TrEMBL record:
GO terms for biological process: transmembrane transport. It comes from the Bacteria. It comes from Aneurinibacillus migulanus. This is Membrane transport protein. GO terms for cellular component: plasma membrane. Belongs to the auxin efflux carrier (TC 2.A.69) family. The chain crosses the membrane at residues 12-30, 42-62, 69-94, 100-119, 131-153. Keywords: Cell membrane, Membrane, Transmembrane, Transmembrane helix, Transport.
Length: 154
């Protein structure tokens, strides 16, 4: 447990968030040139993450897949997550529109960031990339279903 907590503080994202919050809190403006550089890096991040996902999927073969775990991860992400989001939102005084948005967002496929963390922490990257792929493909159907029932989630 101690190692897991220490590993979190080795991520540059944590320091970036802390610095960003401090700058915001202290009302320190950033130069236009700096912000342009940040926007360029931000624009490049999605293609790089997709490249990493593709490289990881290229190493996965059908016999590497653990069908039960991939199915389990996909069901959790596409079906159970929206139900849990709806249940949690029902406990709080949240506007109907916010509940509907959270319900749909909870049913989206996992982001590729999960894969980057799995690679970074050596935690079954092939499984994570397989779940990301399968749930993204199936999300075309699940999102249509979520959008058709979202009007009842209030």
């Amino acid at each position: 447990m101690k190692t897991a907590v220490l590993n979190i503080f080795r991520l540059p994202n944590i320091y970036a968030v802390i610095i960003g919050l401090l700058l915001q809190y202290c009302h320190i403006p950033l130069s236009t040139n700096f912000m342009q550089a940040v926007e360029l890096l931000g624009g490049a991040s999605i293609p790089v993450v997709m490249l990493v996902l593709g490289m990881q999927l290229a190493m996965v073969t059908i016999k590497d897949l653990d069908g039960k775990l991939v199915a389990f991860g996909t069901v959790i992400r596409l079906i159970i997550s929206p139900v849990l989001a709806w249940g949690i939102c029902s406990l709080f005084p949240i506007s109907p529109l916010s509940k509907q948005v959270m319900f749909v967002i909870a049913g989206m496929p996992p982001a590729a960031m999960a894969l980057l963390y799995a690679i970074r922490f050596e935690a079954k990257a092939k499984l994570v990339s397989s779940i990301t792929l399968i749930s993204t493909v199936l999300s075309f159907i699940s999102i249509m279903v979520l959008l058709s029932i979202v009007k009842w989630v209030t």
